[in-house]
């Protein structure tokens, strides 16, 4: 046996006090008068052995009572097998899943309400001195506290639903880390009982990052909805990524029926600016319906839109918000080398939509580049380090870069530049098999450019091109391919619109500039390069949203709608800024909807949606949950399913034996024994 507070054991020296009292006979005397000393001698001989035995027994009870009290204060415990001291106060860790899926209807109200009542029963039945850790998916500083029973009951009523979803292993690891720190820094924790109250959706039930635990007790408690059916808007997308003035486009809305029954007469409402459409549809069980809405952009600007359905069960994913931004212009900066092609300038001079600025590489300034949506390097052989670094920074800030190398490049300068733009490197020139023979018609870049795919399309002839060194390792995807397998035009991966033409526009390299495909490709680059806010973003996911045309004021950017005025995390780069809605504060304070983006004045609109991570309502069953915990090395696991309401459920936790209570009882027994001896043993 070991002790939580071994320093208290020095008080055992106090047992010397009753011993000293008995040794020196510190007791009161009473004078008795007898007629004969012979009678006194007789009494003394008869009672001497009895009195000695009585004194020894009283002394023993006093020593044992005092020792038991001191040992109780030292809090004895039995060490675990690995020798770690896991002793002290007992703690109940209660996690209540407060994600949106817990708003489903149970037998006695919402699942979250049932979860709160289950936790309330457990807290009320806990020992008065038990410590309680009560938390949700929020994991905020307010939840990083060890509570008493009264504090926990008060905190329980403040738990509300929210958009945060977390995996089970993330929750338990957070509990373990926090409890370990508290045990080291504040007060020792003896046994820990982990209660996990959730609906245990498959989407968020992950235990792969859990480490084994043989000392804690785990109680997964599953609350079940009356129906797992959910009808929700999964996503929206456009037929063409381009929102061009005067051109028709099509909006698609995907509606999922996550249910074993058909959904009949589902009302779907779509709004876009002043246009509205309502339709009724039937969606088969466990299937998806995609409906569309045709529109034409009749003027430039930002137009708010939304898609909405009506569901009987879960409501947070019934609406999807989006914006359509029709650009007024596209600013193009053309940086010419010594042997630049004049054809690029001719192409962008055709339409007034493009505001073209042409400079030589020697006249380049970063201020000019910062104002451009699309920056084109035209016929440059040696890219200076200053120009390269500027363009890399601008690419990170949302500008598009199109690269048309010269006819005699310096590979070292070009390849150092290309690597940082996530584009493949260039090698020596090749003169065989350079004819274009493949166009990636399925790529979003070409959507709407061709009426239909044509195998006999008149493609330009390329006589020479630069070999691509690491085409297979690069994540950039080819838009045009040559017969020899070498890509001719590539686009960088992800959200970056950087393009690389692997040949030269010089006549000695071919006649690409004379073909109708050349202006079409250039104009499409410009159309896709207009810097604008995204059509929609997701709370908790988007960590870097670029905001353009900001002022240089020190005032923070704000997201404002009818109910929320929120200052997101942000960074400024001259006239460009980026904001994040991925932090805990954003998740806690933002709600789905359309927001004004305020600098010194309104500079744009942002459509914000909830994550659809929990829209699929498939749940784990009891055997799967227990098996997952056992596979993670957690053996002390007791599962309970709440199907008929929490009020009819009896929950009993395995309460660890507290040895200090045992010693307190022993001390009381010893004191009572002493009192009985002194009272009745004459």
Estimate the helix proportion, in percent.
25-40%
Number of strands: 34
Quickly count the helices.
13
**In terms of per-residue confidence, which ranges show pLDDT below 50 for 5 or more consecutive residues?**
80-86
CATH class membership of the largest domain: Alpha Beta
Shape: elongated
Q: What separation lies between the terminal Cα atoms?
A: 39 Å
With strands numbered from the N-terminus, the spatial order across the biggest sheet is: 17-16-18-19-25-24-23-21
Q: Largest beta sheet, briefly?
A: 8 strands, mixed
Strand content: 25-35%
Return the structural class. alpha/beta
The CATH topology of the largest domain corresponds to Rossmann fold
CATH architecture of the largest domain: 3-Layer(aba) Sandwich
Overall pLDDT metric: 85
Domain count: the total is: 5
Compute the gyration radius: what is it?
39 Å
